[in-house]
């Protein structure tokens, strides 16, 4: 990519931040755990938030703050996806969108398919919505991960009524193929289930990887699917509370329109303002600079692991800034992150929290400077050699 990579902020600036990433551990720990990034905000986001603060624009979010059209424009430019703004509703965050769509589409006690290793709130939010998580682990092909379509079919045949899809998948970084998504949609339709597709990492798909928005993966997908997404991962806006639920069919649009009005009312005004600025074409250059920085870090991480932790297994993710690393060869127990926090003063995310498949793994966030990434892996390497 010819774009100049975005540079992460220096540690002394980052340590002034008050978010989870910077307030959970003492200063001698390098935080590479929670999915926040270390870059400066996109200029259009900074400008709109600065203006809102200057004018005291801190009231309630209006009915349509412009996010529907902004997201439709973004989806068309970036993914070739024609989104009907009438099928878009907002809420506070992606996981709230997942919970509310589940509440509207399943009955208490229904099974909900999740595909571990997967972002831990998928199970927690299923519980919150009154569903029962049914694990159908991703299949490890030896070169990557794939959805176990036969396993999903069996879970649906046994009564599960919803599938929580993660595309791109957290923590493996897998971008599912159009054929897999179409097959998944067909299974859901045959069994009368819905698919809720969390696409929050989609703006960060790597060059050369084909990402298919679930709702575009064929006629069945459009009928059974809901997409839930946000600008918050790519643009580091998680604290501002704005996410989008998208439907592409009359029946699924009616489900979104029928949600309790409180669901949309909870959209944060700063989140909505920032999302409109982020999804605007003016921010595309910043997004591409971020993607260039992440492409460099994906490759750098591979080189650092080869040098300092040659027995670690790392597959370059198709998207995003999260790496799923198998550290089991080092015998640091089921939860290497717990061991390395003390031993290396590096905070990684705990593999077992992503499901039983995560034993011996840790998730590393490389949305940081190359210097911080280098120091973190060198610290862990020193522990491995000691
Ligand atoms: C796949 C996935 N979904 C949802 C979220 C959280 O999004 P939100 O804060 O909008 O609920 C994350 C955060 O890392 C994530 O990785």
Automatic annotation (TrEMBL):
Keyword annotations of the record: Aminotransferase, Lyase, Pyridoxal phosphate, Transferase
The enzyme's E.C. designation: 4.4.1.13
Domain of life: Bacteria
Pfam families in the cross-refs: Aminotran_1_2 (PF00155)
One annotated GO molecular function: transaminase activity
SUPFAM superfamilies the UniProt entry points to: PLP-dependent transferases
Coiled coil: none
Record-linked InterPro entries: Aminotransferase_I/II_large (IPR004839), Class-II_PLP-Dep_Aminotrans (IPR051798), PyrdxlP-dep_Trfase (IPR015424), PyrdxlP-dep_Trfase_major (IPR015421), PyrdxlP-dep_Trfase_small (IPR015422)
Family the UniProt entry places it in: Belongs to the class-II pyridoxal-phosphate-dependent aminotransferase family. MalY/PatB cystathionine beta-lyase subfamily.
Descriptive protein name: cysteine-S-conjugate beta-lyase
Organism: Microbacterium flavum
């Amino acid at each position: 990519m010819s774009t100049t990579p975005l540079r992460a902020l220096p540690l002394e600036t980052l340590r002034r931040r008050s978010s989870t990433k910077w307030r959970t551990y003492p200063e001698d720990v390098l935080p590479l755990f929670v999915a926040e990034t270390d870059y400066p905000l996109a200029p259009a986001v900074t400008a709109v938030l600065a203006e809102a603060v200057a004018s005291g624009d801190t009231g309630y979010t209006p009915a349509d703050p412009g996010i529907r059209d902004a997201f439709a424009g973004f989806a068309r430019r970036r993914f070739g996806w024609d989104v009907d703004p009438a099928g878009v509703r907002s809420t506070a965050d992606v996981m709230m969108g997942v919970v509310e769509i589940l509440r509207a589409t399943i009955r208490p006690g229904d099974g909900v398919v999740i595909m571990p290793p997967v972002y831990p709130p998928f199970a927690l939010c299923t519980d919150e919505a009154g569903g029962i998580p049914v694990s159908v682990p991703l299949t490890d092909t030896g070169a990557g991960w794939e959805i176990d379509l036969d396993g999903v079919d069996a879970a649906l045949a046994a009564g599960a009524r919803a599938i929580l899809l993660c595309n791109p998948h957290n923590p493996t970084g897998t971008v599912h193929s159009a054929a897999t998504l179409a097959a998944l949609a067909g299974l859901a339709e045959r069994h009368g289930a819905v698919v809720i597709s969390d696409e929050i990492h989609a703006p960060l798909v790597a060059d050369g990887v084909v990402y298919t928005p679930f709702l575009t993966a064929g006629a069945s997908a459009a009928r059974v699917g809901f997409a839930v997404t946000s600008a918050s991962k790519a643009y580091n806006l998680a604290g501002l509370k704005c996410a989008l639920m998208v439907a592409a069919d009359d029946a699924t649009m009616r489900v979104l329109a029928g949600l309790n009005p409180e669901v949309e009312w909870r959209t944060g005004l700063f989140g909505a303002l920032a999302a409109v600025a982020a999804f605007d074409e003016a921010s595309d250059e910043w997004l591409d600079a971020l993607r260039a920085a992440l492409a460099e870090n994906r490759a750098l991480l591979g080189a650092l692991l080869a040098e300092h932790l040659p027995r670690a297994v790392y597959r370059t993710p198709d998207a995003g800034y999260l790496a799923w690393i198998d550290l089991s060869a080092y015998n640091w127990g089921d939860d290497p992150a717990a061991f390395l926090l003390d031993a290396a003063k590096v905070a990684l995310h705990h593999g077992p929290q992503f499901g039983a498949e995560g034993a011996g793994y840790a998730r590393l966030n490389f949305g940081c400077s190359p210097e911080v990434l280098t120091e973190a892996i060198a610290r862990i390497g020193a522990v491995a050699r000691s």
